[in-house]
Design brief:
Elements (H helix, E strand, L loop, with lengths): L6 E4 L3 H12 L4 E4 L3 H9 L7 E3 L3 H6 L6 E4 L5 H10 L8 E4 L5 H13 L3 E8 L1 H7 L2 E6 L4 H11 L18 H30 L4 H11 L7 H11 L21 H12 L4 H13 L2 H10 L11 H34 L5 H7 L10 H11 L10 H23 L5 H13 L6 H12 L33
Parallel strand pairs: 1-2, 1-4, 2-3, 4-5, 5-6
Antiparallel strand pairs: 6-7
Helix pairs in contact: 1-6, 5-8, 8-11, 8-12, 8-14, 9-10, 11-12, 12-18, 14-17, 14-18, 15-16
């Protein structure tokens, strides 16, 4: 074992332990520390036994055991704990040392921490890591950003432990300065929320409208996973649905329908609202989880607010084919909106991301990994300045081809009283985006009527603003700023 470790990791929860073992398996010596010292001893005596992993019982011992420039990675709960550990580490580190936050921190916090740590003469990296327990152990998708000068120092370790494509390309690259890494991870998680909700809605349609059993639905998902929808989430959905409890009955039917969340989906939706991007599908996925949490109210409402009893008389196999197309088209919209948010926020912060490269990073190791992502990479290879995925020939053809089936499925779900908020929001975005004229002219007239917010005219230069005294009793004063 080396006298000094190549990197130090704070935090021995599931992700921390598995990343440490991953690093060690790639030839790195790793120092480890945890506030609960018993966890350090148990890890060194257990999974880390006989490996090039050094346990420490104090932060002083821990930081002293790492070679300079020190690379100290925090795998701890996001929020105040990260700020507290930064303060504990700063007196023990030297100029040029690097603090790395590998948790799910909010990108605004990461930008603030980067500036603060740099002001102390050190470097800071906020890196998104996706892939769960198995990804952390065998190769996750890694999205680092922060102090640009830190990238050459952490590049080899991150790329060595990352997942790889079949051609050996590592699923890791530098996202940009400040909070860029955690921002890309946040958008990844938002898209993950959308994918999961769309899959859940497809499951509910098959379960409640088509009256299919979990085994039958699981078989459909496995079939879908062999085609255009091939992905980790589709694959595990098939496995989940055929899994039996100890009594031989489907476990899925015994799981309480209250979904949890840790906030990254909400952050994505809030950022979209802040910057003015219509991220409707992901927002609906977040709200769907919020609605699921109101279980007691929903049970009460079911008795008080009757609706249609779902009933289907057509060809189930044909309808499942329609459902696959509706799911695929909705998935395209989810990524379209996510990439629109990436572009708008990158412009706001002067980041220069490689959009096709981001799709490559997500192609393996992460939760949203899928064959679909290679299509996004190809789209940006064809046109690096692509304004919207729907303008790419492949995605345009795909959505237009699925359009009729997409409408049949959403119409049937609504007519039969089944909630499909993400799928409906997707087709409403598509219809709104392709509409040359929207009723916003009436909205703006209303704003001018009650608040003198002014409007613009189709028959005059767009930069000119107008106000009308609609009632004859208003004054001529109008708002000085017209904001779109």
């Amino acid at each position: 074992m080396k006298e000094k470790a190549d990197i130090g990791v704070v935090g021995l929860a599931v992700m921390g332990e598995n990343l440490i073992l991953n690093m060690e398996s790639r030839g790195y010596t790793v120092a480890v520390f945890n506030r609960t010292l018993a966890k350090v001893d148990a890890f060194i005596a257990g999974r880390a036994a006989g490996r090039n992993i050094k346990g420490a019982h104090s932060l002083q011992e821990f930081t002293a055991s790492v070679s300079r420039p020190r690379k100290i990675m925090l795998m701890i709960k996001a929020g105040r704990a990260v700020d507290e550990f930064i303060e504990l580490l700063l007196p023990l580190l030297d100029p040029g040392d690097i603090i790395i936050d590998g948790g799910n921190s909010y990108f605004g916090d990461t930008a603030r921490r980067t500036a603060y740590v740099e002001s102390k003469g050190l470097l800071y990296v906020g890196t998104g890591i996706s892939g769960g327990e198995q990804g952390a152990l065998h190769g996750p998708s890694i999205m680092p950003g922060g102090s640009d000068r830190a990238w050459p120092e952490v590049k080899n370790i991150f790329r060595d432990i990352a997942a790889r494509l079949d051609d050996g390309t590592p699923c890791c690259n530098w996202m940009g300065s400040g909070g860029a890494g955690h921002f890309v991870k946040m958008v990844h998680n938002g898209i993950e929320y959308g994918d999961m909700q769309l899959i859940a809605e497809s499951y509910q349609i098959m379960r409640e409208l088509l009256k299919m059993s979990p085994d039958e639905i699981g078989a459909v998902f496995m079939e879908w996973n062999a085609g255009e929808l091939e992905s980790y989430l589709i694959e595990i959905t098939g496995h989940i649905l055929i899994f039996k409890d100890q009594d031989g009955l489907p476990l899925i039917d015994k799981i309480l329908d209250k979904a949890g969340q840790k906030g990254t989906g909400k952050w994505t939706a809030v950022q979209a609202l802040d910057i003015g991007i219509p991220l409707t599908l992901i927002a609906e996925a977040v709200f769907a989880r919020c609605l699921s949490a109101q279980k007691e109210e929903r049970v009460r409402a079911a008795k008080l607010l009757p609706g249609p009893a779902p009933f289907f008389t057509g060809d189930k196999k044909a309808f499942c084919g329609d459902l696959m197309q509706a799911l695929y088209a909705s998935k395209i919209i989810s990524y379209t909106q996510g990439y629109a948010l990436l572009r708008a926020t990158a412009a706001e912060y002067n980041w220069k991301p490689d959009y096709g490269g981001i799709a490559t990073i997500w192609r393996n190791g992460c939760i949203i990994r899928s064959a679909f992502l290679s299509r996004i990479k190809e789209a940006y290879d064809r046109n690096p300045g692509l304004a919207n995925l729907l303008f790419d020939p492949f995605f345009k053809r795909s959505v237009l081809s699925a359009q009729a089936a997409w409408r049949r499925v959403t119409a049937a779900a609504i007519a039969q009283g089944l909630p499909v908020p993400a799928m409906v929001s997707a087709i409403c975005y598509f219809d709104g985006y392709r509409s040359p004229t929207l009723p916003a002219n009436l909205t703006q007239a209303q704003r001018d009527y009650f608040g003198a917010h002014t409007y613009r005219r189709t028959d005059r230069p767009e930069q000119e603003s107008f106000h009308t005294n609609w009632t004859g009793m208003g004054g001529g004063t109008a708002a000085s700023v017209y904001t779109v």
